[in-house]
Design brief:
- By secondary structure, the chain is mainly alpha-helical.
- It folds into two domains: 71 residues; 98 residues, no CATH class.
- A two-stranded parallel sheet has the order 1-2.
- β1, α4 and β2 form a beta-alpha-beta unit.
- It is extended, with a radius of gyration of 22 Å.
- It starts with a helix and ends with a helix.
Length: 178
């Protein structure tokens, strides 16, 4: 079946799209890095506009979500219910190649987010990069369990905590093996 005409065309098309997406991703990263590395405000503003244009261009070609900018705008206006617990887990240094100024801004934004209400808990994932669930899965799992426990009765809580402890032990031994 791999020699079928449509299969060959799909393989060629997929490869072209993969290369185009890789090139677009590289251009976006380079464009953002130029913004971060700029020394003066005017240059940074011009480079920022170019980067936003590049993001918009690539969103129309389905290389990044089309509604990225709209999502950011909407999320800035969302009012969170004080009845819903929010656990905000963030890395102390999410991007290794970003200047310290932006890392400090990242941390400040998370600290400000925690002030929206008493239902928000900030957890700093020390030693993790941007993908905390990969770097420290036990932290993420335990945070979810902590948020979920108050919603079940005591018998279920005991069973969940027992499983969580077993899981933590297993994840700890996996870390040691690495």
């Amino acid at each position: 079946m791999a020699n079928h005409k449509s299969a060959k065309k799909r393989i060629r098309t997929s490869e072209r799209k993969r290369v185009a997406n890789k090139n677009a991703s590289s251009k976006i990263k380079s464009s953002l890095k130029k913004v971060f590395d700029s020394k003066n405000k005017e240059e940074a503003e011009k480079l920022y506009k170019d980067a936003v244009g590049l993001l918009d261009k690539n969103s129309t070609k389905n290389r990044i979500p089309k509604n990225y900018r709209e999502t950011v705008k909407i999320m800035k206006t969302v009012e969170y219910s004080p009845k819903i617990p929010i656990i905000n887990i963030y890395s102390e240094n999410p991007f290794s190649d970003v200047p310290e100024m932006y890392t400090n801004r990242w941390i400040k934004l998370h600290e400000e987010f925690a002030k929206i209400g008493p239902n928000v808990i900030n957890i700093v994932a020390h030693g993790s990069a941007h993908y905390i669930f990969r770097d420290n899965p036990s932290l993420v799992i335990n945070a979810i369990i902590k948020a979920y426990l108050p919603t079940v009765d005591e018998t279920q809580q005991f069973d969940i905590l027992k499983k969580a402890l077993d899981n933590s032990i297993e994840l700890s031994t996996e870390v040691i093996k690495k």
